[in-house]
């Protein structure tokens, strides 16, 4: 009779879960690659092959992507708490399968918009789930580092794929070559997610068993049994750190959504080649991605609030420089600064949500935060399109700079420092209690 191998109880920690964490980093790089394959190409495709000239109309694909991604984020959080993380991750990749084919075969702009609806669902389900899974695995001590690695992989892949797509478009035309990247990414991701990724909900359960409230009483009302409505209200409006993070996240992605639809058109006014436009566009997510390798870990050392405030202010200055420039050099410097400011903000906002949200409803809180954040794609695309149509491309960038400066001020005034201070007695190496044991959800300070 064969002896059953005992189930290995989960432990928290980056080193203890290095193999699964690395695998999830790779999966998230593929998620980012799905966006990068089209960012350089689609605005050029809109003008060259479909004859679209109105900026607002061209930006419809960004708005469609942002709206569906925001909605998918909510369901990703809710379903990952209810059914587990891995099924949601797999479902997200299934939505990606038709996207490259639709972009290759699109006979009209409606197909492009429909493909971006599916891409938004893919991005919302997969990226949200990989975020939650990494937070589950590492525990509180290295949360900023974990988010920095996650977002660096995703946006580094956006940059690399933007460069590759620009090169392929210049060498082989706008279709189909750039979108063959997406077919390869999807196939690889389905194998990795289906065969090798493991469920992480037990890690969240372990952290919940040892959860403690802040000694200052700020989180006393954030107990384990909040309803979905209460979680949404706290994350969106009531809880100062969660709400500030949600609103700053919206502005951050407003800038990204505006840049996605507008920057290639702005850069094209200087008669730059597609490869040069691809390079300019890649600088922003490239610096953003690489910078997060530093800023995520830095937030574990110095805290979250001041890094977020400074990052939004740097973004405002970068956008002002891009708006005031008319050639490659100014735009390149502005793109680098914009990437640096975004790298200071992006993983740190996710770490804030992980700091404040109870492990029992962390997936839902991350999902709601990402609803706010990814609504910024649509807001940026629509705002950018309207202002560009009425006042011009440079005016649209000035508008984004003003909004970013206001977001920096809001965080400075409202957010408190959320970073937990680990103690020697932290529960990093505790193993999961038996399922029959009583699992307290919080302890007094």
Mean pLDDT: 87
CATH class: Mainly Alpha
In total, how many beta strands?
Answer: 0
Report the C-alpha radius of gyration, rounded.
Answer: 21 Å
Number of distinct helices:
17
Helix fraction bin: over 70%
User: Which band does the percent of strand residues land in?
Assistant: under 5%
User: Which parts are unreliable, with pLDDT below 50 for 5 consecutive residues or more?
Assistant: 1-5, 422-445
Indicate the CATH topology: Growth Hormone, Chain: A
Q: What would you say the CATH architecture is? A: Up-down Bundle
Q: Could you tell me how far the N terminus lies from the C terminus, measured between alpha carbons in angstroms? A: 50 Å
Biggest sheet layout? none
Overall 3D shape = globular
H-E string: HHHHHHHHHHHHHHHHH
Structural class: mainly alpha
Q: Could you characterize what this model shows?
A:
By secondary structure, this protein is mainly alpha-helical. It has a single domain (18-204, 226-414), classed as MFS general substrate transporter like domains (Growth Hormone, Chain: A). The chain is built from 17 helices and no strands. It has helices at 18-39, 42-48, 55-58, 60-83, 85-96, 99-105, 109-138, 143-172, 180-196, 201-209, 228-238, 240-268, 274-302, 305-324, 328-356, 362-391, 393-414. Helix 11 (228-238) packs across helix 16 and helix 12 (240-268) packs parallel to helix 16.
